[in-house]
């Protein structure tokens, strides 16, 4: 009996041992599987993170390209807006000059023509102080016939210089416009003979006078590209109008003289 119990106990012990070993093996297998799952999970997470990182990098690069393109478009829009303003200003000035030119050629009264030229120089060019000089072909002298802003540049109302002398005489002789930025030896200081600009009044290549500018209006810092075009157009139109009105005035005086002489003869007869 005792031996039989010992065998059963041994049998139970062996079964317990086997069960324990089986549990240990299962536990080992589960640990290994858990380790594998953790590794797979970690690997999966890294892959996901890397994928997200790649997407973020792509989105960042795309955002950078879009931002760059937006900046380029913004600059293009600014350039377009500035150019539009310039063109609009140019069109307005040209339209104003057209009206002014019409006014210039609408009268043969010499003083009216000079007055219109003065208004153009003030309103279109933006000059505060300037003088209009005419050339006396008999004496080859340039003399002021109209001026504005004498308090700014004293003496402009009585300028008198010979053809070829100084800046003004040189402009009248060569027919080439002068701007002070061409001659900065003394720091660009404006003087009676060295204005901001001197524009010849020409009929073809024949110079009859000058428009001489000494100071611009306070709201205008410098000449613009449009101003140089206006100078060219003004010089031709103003020269023609001044020359025509001057000839008309001279012929009218001669006609009046002849008429008076004829009246005198008629009365005497």
Shape descriptor reads rod-shaped
Number of strands: 6
Count of helical segments?
A: 4
Q: Say which CATH homologous superfamily of one domain is assigned.
A: GAF domain
CATH class of one domain: Alpha Beta
Structural class: alpha+beta
The run of helices and strands is HHEEEHEEEH
- Biggest sheet overview: 6 strands, antiparallel
Helix content: 55-70%
Low-pLDDT residue intervals, each spanning 5 or more residues: none
- The second-level CATH architecture of one domain is 2-Layer Sandwich
CATH topology of one domain: Beta-Lactamase
* Termini Cα gap: 192 Å
Widest sheet, order of strands: 3-2-1-6-5-4
Q: If you average the pLDDT, what whole number results?
A: 79
Residue share in β-strands: 15-25%
The Cα radius of gyration reads 48 Å
Structure description:
This protein is of the alpha+beta class. The protein has a domain at 105-255: GAF domain (Beta-Lactamase). It is built from 4 helices and 6 strands, in the order ααβββαβββα. The protein has helices at residues 2-104, 110-125, 166-174, 225-268; strands at residues 127-136, 141-148, 160-162, 178-179, 197-203, 206-216. It has a 6-stranded antiparallel sheet, sandwiched between helices. β5 (197-203) and β6 form a beta hairpin. α1 packs parallel to α4 (225-268) and α2 (110-125) runs antiparallel to α4. The longest helix is centred in the N-terminal third of the chain and has 103 residues, at 2-104.
């Amino acid at each position: 009996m005792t031996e039989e119990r010992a065998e059963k106990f041994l049998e139970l012990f062996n079964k317990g041992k086997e069960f324990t070993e089986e549990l240990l093996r299962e536990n080992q297998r589960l640990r290994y599987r858990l380790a594998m799952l953790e590794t797979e999970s970690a690997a999966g997470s890294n892959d996901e993170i890397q994928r997200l990182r790649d997407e973020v990098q792509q989105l960042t690069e795309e955002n950078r390209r879009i931002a760059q393109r937006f900046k380029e478009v913004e600059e293009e829009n600014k350039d377009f807006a500035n150019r539009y303003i310039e063109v609009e200003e140019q069109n307005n000035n040209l339209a104003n000059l057209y009206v002014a030119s019409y006014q210039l050629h609408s009268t043969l009264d010499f003083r009216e023509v000079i007055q219109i030229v003065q208004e153009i120089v003030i309103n279109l060019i933006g000059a505060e102080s300037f003088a209009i000089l005419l050339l006396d072909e008999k004496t080859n002298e340039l003399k002021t016939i109209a001026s504005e802003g004498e308090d700014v540049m004293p003496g402009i109302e009585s300028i008198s210089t010979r053809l070829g002398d100084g800046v003004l005489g040189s402009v009248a002789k060569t027919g080439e416009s002068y701007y002070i930025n061409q001659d900065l030896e003394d720091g660009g200081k404006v003087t009676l003979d060295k204005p901001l600009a001197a524009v010849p009044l020409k009929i073809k290549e024949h110079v009859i006078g000058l428009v001489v500018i000494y100071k611009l209006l306070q709201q205008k810092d410098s000449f613009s590209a449009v101003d140089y075009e206006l100078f060219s157009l003004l010089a031709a139109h103003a020269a023609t109008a001044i020359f025509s009105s001057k000839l008309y005035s001279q012929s009218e005086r001669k006609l009046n003289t002849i008429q008076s002489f004829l009246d005198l003869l008629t009365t005497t007869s």
